[in-house]
Design a protein that fits this description.
single chain; alpha/beta; Urease, subunit C, domain 1; five-stranded mixed beta sheet; 19 strands; binds zinc ion; 2 domains; disordered N terminus; 14 helices; TIM Barrel
Length: 454
């Protein structure tokens, strides 16, 4: 690592509650930043990638081209990667009457009733707002699914998200996956590929002929060479005959010898299978090289509504898949729409749910929202290893568990070596009798977090 503090300008990142903003800053180096393993390092970037790395204490003199950030008090994690969003539906919950909510089929029906009145500008505005939230919370890569509505131009929502993808290129990477319904003509899938869709998707679990739907999407994928990401088995009860979309998908991938990446999203039914039925399915999924995406917040909301007791959790068989070496990524899925009325586009909301509902360790939960989704999406690695893309999220240097619990709102987000979002949070307190009696002049402002652990 080459560094000379007198030759290279050094900016302090500043405290988590500070008024400073680094947004837009090109970062040539980070000094004294804590890695996920707890060690302090100096790291420099060239061309948006990690070019050199050394322990902070052994920093030799030298020169770094450009300003470095003194990151004492901050911890760098790989930036989050959202493997499964629905940006076309984001923030539409308020357009529906406030009710108890609905299961999957009910949510689909509500969305379909609204979709004819959703135009390109509507999608673009809400999707941009969602991406801003994702980015500010540490996500620099997003795969979004997009519907092909039956009424009007079926590709107007796709066009909106392709425009957003291109607008954001270089800061936030967006992959757009056409979510074909079983009613969507095959010509629309082909046209979506021609317009620049990154991925082909579909919903065999909602189709009258699930096998036919898996087959149809894979046929187009073979013709176009595009990766595939299907919504599969998003139910807790088995289909009649016990067939699983994911088994069909895995068998067809193997039989066709597909080389592009194929992802199975949701796969909720696997979580309801007894071990003797689950084992061969997991083995098949591993053999076919599928990636699996679990979406805890939405499936905890949608599934199990009929249960009078012992309600299922709605997650896939996360532990069995991980044990078999299947890459299992996790995402936030829907946000404030008919499929999920809550959510905050926050990867650490997902990590908290993975630890509570899927019983993952801290490390496993972090991997599921950072490194593993990049593998599933076919993205190059991001983080602090040599050659990694410099996509990072700086969080206060508190124990990692506090971050994964979603308890730390302050974040500085770097994409390709440039700060794309900077969030500081100030907390004013006026607690207790003494403060109440003395009035606002004794109000206490504390940094967030209360005490930095070094
Ligand atoms: Zn989905």
């Amino acid at each position: 690592m080459q560094h000379d503090a007198t030759a290279a300008a050094t900016l302090p990142v500043g405290p988590p509650d500070g008024a400073v903003s680094l947004a837009g800053t090109e970062v040539a180096a980070l000094w004294s930043v804590r890695q996920p393993d707890g060690t302090l390092v100096d790291v420099s970037f060239v061309g948006g990638r990690v070019a050199a790395l050394s322990p902070t204490a052994s920093r030799p003199p030298g020169v770094v081209a450009g300003p470095g950030l003194d990151a004492r008090g901050w911890r760098a994690l790989p930036a989050a990667c959202e493997p499964h969003a629905h940006l076309d539906k984001a923030f539409t919950a308020a357009r529906f009457p406030a009710e108890r909510g609905a299961d999957l089929e009910g949510a689909v029906a509500r969305w379909r009733a609204l979709a004819p009145r959703v135009d390109r500008a509507d999608v673009l505005g809400r999707a941009r707002s969602a991406v801003e939230r994702y980015a500010s919370r540490g996500t620099t890569t997003i795969r979004t699914h997009v519907d092909a509505p039956a009424e009007g131009d079926p590709l107007r929502m796709l066009d909106a998200l392709l425009a957003l993808r291109d607008e954001l290129a270089g800061s936030v990477t967006v992959q757009v996956c056409l979510l074909a319904g079983w009613h969507t003509p095959t010509a629309v899938l082909v046209e979506a590929a021609a317009r620049g869709a990154d991925v082909l998707g579909g919903c065999p679990h909602l189709a009258p002929d699930p096998h036919g739907e898996v087959t149809r999407v894979l046929d187009v994928a073979e013709r176009t060479g595009l990766p595939v990401d299907l919504h599969v088995d998003e139910q807790t009860s088995l289909a009649s005959g016990g067939a699983l979309d994911i088994e069909d998908l895995a068998r067809q991938v193997l039989a066709r010898g597909l080389t592009q990446r194929v992802t199975a999203s949701h796969a909720v039914r696997l979580g309801s299978l007894p071990p003797d039925r689950l084992g061969p399915v997991v083995e098949l999924v591993a053999r076919a090289g599928l990636g699996v995406v679990t979406l805890p917040i939405t499936n905890l909301y949608l599934q199990g509504r009929d249960a009078t007791h012992l309600a299922p959790r709605g997650l896939t068989a996360v532990r069995a898949l991980l044990d078999a070496g299947v890459p299992v990524a996790a995402g936030a899925d829907n946000v404030r729409d008919p499929f999920n009325p809550v959510g905050s586009c926050d990867p650490f909301e997902t990590t908290a749910l993975l630890m509570t509902a899927a019983h993952l360790s801290e490390r496993e939960a972090l991997d599921a929202v950072t490194t593993t989704p990049r593998t599933v999406l076919g993205m190059p690695p991001a983080g602090l290893a040599l050659g990694d893309r410099a996509d990072l999220v700086l969080v206060p240097d508190v124990p990692l568990g506090d971050v994964l619990a979603g308890a730390e709102p302050a974040r500085v987000v770097v994409a390709g070596g440039r700060v794309v979002a900077d969030t500081r949070v100030r907390r004013d307190l006026a607690l207790g009798v003494a403060h109440r009696a003395a009035g606002p002049s004794t109000r206490k402002t504390v940094p967030v977090p209360d005490q930095l652990v070094r």
